[in-house]
Amino acid sequence: MINKIEQLIPNEVHEIYQFSKSLMELKDEWKYLFVPDxxxxxxxxxxxxxxxxxxxxxxxxHIASLLSLFKVRRWFQGMENNHDNYYGFCSSLRGLIESxxxxxxSL
Length: 107
Description:
mainly alpha
């Protein structure tokens, strides 16, 4: 049986929610290998330094986007849990909107 919140949201949002759920299950498998600053300073090859620099930037952007997605998921869960509570639903919806705006500004 489809719960009430699934009837109210577009299919695309539900698909993103399910995708974030699958990502959450795999979070322990991700590995980010950052080069310590002391080792980075010792590298003389500019190409290698650039490669390491951009990999670190992309790792951090990836982490930020995943955390943003997980925050959105939690707000969505709040909406789902409060589908019959007007104030709870509205406060979760507002949190979702603000979280999306913060993510848009940050990323």
